[in-house]
Amino acid sequence: MRLGLLGHPVKHSLSPPMHRAAFLFFGIEGTYDLFDIEPQEFESRVSNLIAAGISGFNATIPHKGAALQLCTEQNRSLEARLVGVANTIRVDSAGELHAHNTDLTGFMNALREFEGGVTHSSSLAIILGAGGAARACILGAILAGYQRVCVIARRFEQSEAICQEIQQSLKAEGIEYHAGLSAAAPAALKSLDDSKSKEACLIVNCTPVGLTQDTVPEFIEPLFRRNQSSSRKLFFDTVYKPDLEETPLMRLAGQNDYFVCDGLAMLVEQAAYAFQFWTGRLPPHDLLLSAAKSSLQANSLNN
To answer: Could you tell me the pTM of the whole model?
Structure first.
């Protein structure tokens, strides 16, 4: 079985050690390789890989949108349709491509484990950012039962647009807002002065802070100090540091009495469900987490 990751760049990905561990665990003969592909070469390289017998692949930045477009509407999973991009593609025996998105389930499972049984009655989740990761996390918070989901981005137009798109996606799939799912559609906040931002029991970072930059933007920093929620406060970062240290936002959240979690758990969960989409077998979380951490530690020693 031949699998791989298509992206640009991809050299620091943790996917190979995780999927190789899964192959060994299930006794499947297979490979998982990295393919650094420029955007303009994506379709032609995918065609070449299919001709060479690839069984499936993950797509990461900047190819998730293009990966979805390779598949017909009937070959797109509910998760892929809701999020609007695909991070996992399976090639069937007839050579047809099937799209899936494991970021949504990956986030929800990692969040459920982090929450430890917290209930969401009348609770508020705030999502920072308006990119692809934010879309999966907004949907995940809604489907997890948070009664209010608000989005804050550097530019209000971005957060407003993503909220409208998600409302349309849910409506198109026949998923209605109702008690037990969400009492209100996701809303964009114009600023942190909005009183809603002071009541959050969950904040999720989907910005590049900690990934491509370590400086906390001014539009984010006051959020943690102003939050007056009386509930247990959680901060979930979709970013993780290669040295497994806290991200800048995790440090800031911890200083303001939040329980914190980095993005490694979400990465492991989405990898596990991608492997299941290809093989029908779900590898244990601890197996993939151990493989990911071992790879990070090895890279740290080599550097």
So the answer is: 0.89
